[in-house]
């Protein structure tokens, strides 16, 4: 049986301690500000905003997002190179196009693919790459468990399939989403179906990843608000990133070479990670809110504690 949020454990103890600290901080605020916050928390929009901002700062989402971005960079890119070598191809144009790699540094990618060929990615090499890539899944698990205030699932051989499935889904989502939507560009109304496809794909990934990594401790309907928020947010972030990234990569490549390209990708991944964790956190606040919407999301279960306790 999975422990409920707030139960004794690393994350549960941390959540109790931080809630107590938050209450103490609230009591030290000026009386006028306390009354303002109390009025905001008496209505649904105010409760969501106040709780989300407080939890965001308390759980250090900025720092956690940077950790996720770094793990993503060191886990997913080797997986993509592995996929390319499995295809028995030295042609890296499809991968370079998917990653918006500038012309100045495409030779670096080509050299990496050529160096990864032959026996370099044998069975042992593949296992090492996949095992290293699971660090991303473990970092995400820690973040989600902290957000939902539940103990992390136990790490054992049974966890391996969850870690690997998440890494593979995230890796494939980068290159397949764009390729899958290209045939839809010409379908009338022009440009609408790709937007819908991207929204569905982003929301599905945002729902799948925490559900799998938390071993089903949180029901999908509780994860759905955060997944939908992530899908809607990416409708704005994705076009902005697509417009900014190619130019930023070219400038970084001209000034700093390959290391500049790496830092630019990290900045982009940091933005995506921040959006992912922030929408997950806001979704959790919405799903656990005592108001009518929160009750409807929880369905017959009155609280998230009941959801986790039955898993």
Distance between the termini: 6 Å
Total strands: the figure is 0
Indicate the percent of residues in helices: over 70%
Low-confidence stretches: 1-15, 301-311
Major β-sheet profile = none
How many domains? The number is 1
Order of helices and strands: HHHHHHHHHHHHH
Shape: globular
β-strand percent reads: under 5%
Rg is 21 Å
Helix/strand-derived category reads mainly alpha
Counting H and I runs of at least 4 residues, what is the number of helices?
A: 13
User: Quick check: average pLDDT?
Assistant: 77
Brief overview, please?
The chain is an all-alpha fold and 311 residues long. The protein has helices at residues 10-27, 31-41, 44-58, 61-86, 93-99, 106-115, 123-148, 160-181, 192-213, 220-256, 258-288, 292-298, 304-309.
Distinctive features:
single chain; 311 residues; mainly alpha; 13 helices; globular
């Amino acid at each position: 049986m999975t422990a409920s949020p707030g139960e004794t454990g690393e994350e549960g103890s941390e959540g109790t301690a931080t809630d107590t600290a938050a209450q103490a901080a609230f009591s030290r605020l000026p009386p006028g500000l306390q009354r303002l916050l109390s009025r905001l928390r008496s209505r649904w929009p105010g409760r969501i905003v106040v709780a989300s901002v407080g939890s965001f700062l308390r759980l250090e989402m900025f720092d956690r997002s940077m950790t996720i971005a770094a793990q993503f960079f060191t886990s997913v890119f080797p997986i993509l190179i592995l996929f390319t070598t499995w295809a028995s191809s030295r042609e890296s144009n499809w991968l370079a196009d998917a990653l918006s790699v500038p012309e100045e540094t495409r030779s670096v990618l080509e050299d990496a693919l050529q160096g990864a060929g032959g026996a370099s990615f044998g069975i042992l090499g593949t296992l090492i790459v996949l095992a290293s890539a699971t660090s991303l899944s473990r970092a995400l698990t820690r973040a989600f468990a902290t957000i939902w205030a539940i103990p992390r699932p136990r790490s054992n051989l049974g966890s391996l399939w969850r870690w690997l499935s998440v890494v593979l889904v995230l890796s494939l989502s980068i290159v397949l989403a764009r390729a899958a939507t290209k045939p839809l560009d010409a379908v009338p109304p022009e440009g609408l179906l790709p937007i819908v496809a991207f929204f569905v794909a982003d929301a599905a990934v945002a729902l799948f990843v925490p559900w799998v990594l938390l071993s089903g401790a949180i029901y999908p309907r509780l994860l759905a608000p955060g997944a939908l928020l992530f899908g809607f947010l990416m409708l704005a972030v994705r076009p902005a990133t697509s417009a900014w990234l190619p130019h930023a990569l070219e400038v970084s490549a001209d000034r700093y070479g390959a290391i500049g390209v790496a830092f630019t990708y990290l900045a982009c991944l940091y933005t995506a990670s921040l959006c992912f964790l922030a929408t997950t956190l806001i979704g959790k606040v919405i799903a656990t809110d005592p108001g009518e919407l929160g009750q409807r999301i929880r369905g017959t279960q009155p609280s998230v504690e009941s959801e986790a306790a039955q898993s």
